[in-house]
From TrEMBL:
One of its GO terms (cellular component) is cytosol. This is Uncharacterized protein. GO terms for molecular function: N-methyltransferase activity. The keyword Transferase applies. Belongs to the class I-like SAM-binding methyltransferase superfamily. NNMT/PNMT/TEMT family.
Length: 275
């Protein structure tokens, strides 16, 4: 059994066990609707604003979506900007759910609730009412087909995602993932440095975290999680070399499923090298 010790805790983190207990269908039935996750309003408003505010600066070719589970919300918003999205996750079950949606299988999850909310927010912020869900969904399908689906293990030395072509992506995005797959703050910081290397000059990173969290419950199993706070996240980005770091936070209620009390969205740019 491959286990690593959770910092400041006697509880081992077994990442293979976390994957084994992943229940994609249950997640999609309970966490993929706006009424069930109040923080989606905060997330959608900020992601739309972030992409709009930096539209002139962000490249439009390739994005890496790293560890968003089966959730397509962030990729949907990114698809308005980029032509290719490499969708990477640790769970083959999550990737299968995404593939089912791309292939429009009858049992694929219906994302219309969150997608319609994203489009409404886009209309509100930009005044552009020409965006239609069907066309936007087609862009997303094409973008993921162009980028591909890929499984990763953040702790593997030969991880194909993190050891991919340098200076390749315009955008790297990761949502509520690194605190689950990085067993120490050192590995977390090293992963941020690998993201930096994957980005082109002037490339853009978007991270979402639940702060001050020590556990989450999935499929009736309680898993320890790497606690992150704002200082750790900002330091990791700064140490990696990122600039123009900005973050937005919102307090959230703690419950018996997860004890993170703040949701954070942080963005930064890889600087242009001097000629």
């Amino acid at each position: 059994m491959n286990t690593v010790q959770h910092p400041d805790s006697d509880v081992p983190m077994n990442l293979e066990e976390c994957i084994e207990h992943t229940n994609t269908a249950k997640y999609l039935s309970t966490h993929a609707y706006s009424k069930m996750v109040p923080s989606f309003k905060f997330i959608i408003e900020n992601l739309i604003r972030i992409i709009n505010d930096h539209d002139h600066r962000i490249g439009n070719q390739r994005a890496l979506e790293f560890g968003d589970g089966p959730c397509l919300l962030t990729s949907f918003i990114l698809a308005k900007k980029v032509q290719s999205i490499r969708f990477a996750d640790r769970s083959l079950e999550n990737l299968a759910a995404v593939r089912n949606w791309i292939n429009q299988k009858p049992d694929a999850h219906d994302w219309s609730d969150l997608f319609d909310r994203a489009i409404h927010e886009y209309h509100t912020q930009t005044g552009d009412t020409s965006a239609k869900r069907s066309l936007w969904e087609n862009r997303l399908r094409e973008a993921i087909v162009n980028g591909g689906l890929l499984q990763f293990n953040v702790r593997a030395h030969d991880c194909p995602v993190l050891n991919g072509e340098l200076n390749y992506y315009d955008i790297v995005s990761s949502s509520m993932c690194l605190e689950r797959v990085c067993s120490t703050h050192l590995i977390y910081k090293q992963t941020i440095k690998q993201f930096y290397a994957l980005l082109k000059e002037n490339g853009f990173i978007i991270l979402m975290h639940e702060l001050n969290q020590s556990f989450y419950v999935e499929n009736e199993h309680r898993h320890p999680i790497l606690p992150l706070n704002r200082t750790v996240v900002i330091e990791a980005l700064t140490d990696a070399g990122f600039e123009d770091i900005h973050d937005e936070t919102q307090d959230q209620d703690v419950d018996n499923v997860a004890d993170g009390n703040v949701i954070m969205i942080v963005t930064a740019f890889k600087p242009q090298q001097s000629s």
